[in-house]
Amino acid sequence: MVRKVFFSFHFARDNWRVNPVRNHWITKPSAASAGYIDKAEFERLKKRGDTAIKNWIDEQLKGTSVTAVLIGAETYTRKWVDYEIEQSHLKKNGLLGVYIHGVENSEGKTDVKGLNPFDKWHITQNGRKIYFSELYSTYDWVSDNGYNNFGKWVEKAAADAGR
Q1: What is the C-alpha to C-alpha distance for residues 58 and 27, in angstroms, rounded to an integer?
Q2: For residues 159 and 116, what is the distance between their CA atoms, to the nearest angstrom?
Q3: Residue 127 to residue 18: CA distance in whole angstroms
């Protein structure tokens, strides 16, 4: 099944690294074989302010069933990634994290592994905090062969969310 996936990431630092993930379907027979249709566009809104960014994120999340958080060295600290995770959880999207630190940038360099942003969020059940990192799977694009497995990860996230 083709899923509409929202990609959450730190644009300024990781744009080069996220492109192999967001565009890996191009080298496949179709978007369906990659497992998603890319809905991401972001940077052009920054100049219009926080309300415009929130409205854009909310609009982009419409019609998606999964949110893929592409985790780079500084993703954990990004307020818009936090907002995207929160909104995705509230709309009951499947969520997954993909570490991209091993993807080479334009200079052929990799990066340090970032903290898992799912460690910042939790729900409370029966008086116990259950962190999103316990609920949502994370993968490594390089070592877990994301090129061939991303579609499976998306389907697992969707199924785990009942979507």
Answers
A1: 30
A2: 22
A3: 37
161/88 Cα distance (integer angstroms)? 11
Name the nearest CA neighbour of 98 among 74, 69, 121, 127. Answer: 69
pLDDT of residue 35: 42
Q: Which domain holds residue 128?
A: 4-160
Using the 8-state DSSP alphabet, how is residue 62 labeled?
Answer: T
pLDDT of the residue at 15 = 72
Task: With 0.90 as the threshold, say if the pTM is over it.
Answer: no
Q: At what angle are helices 79-90 and 50-61 packed, to 10 degrees?
A: 40
Map tokens 């999340």 to a residue: 61
Chain centroid to Cα 132, Å, comes to 14
Q: What is the CATH number of the domain that holds 57?
A: 3.40.50.450
Q: What is the DSSP letter of 118?
A: G
Total number of domains constituting the chain: 1
- List the chain residues with pLDDT less than 50: 31-40
* CA-angle at 80, arms to 161 and 90, nearest 5°: 30
Q: Residue 154: phi, psi to the nearest 5?
A: -60, -45
Tokens 């080479």 belong to 104
Number of Cβ within 10 Å of residue 23's Cβ equals 11
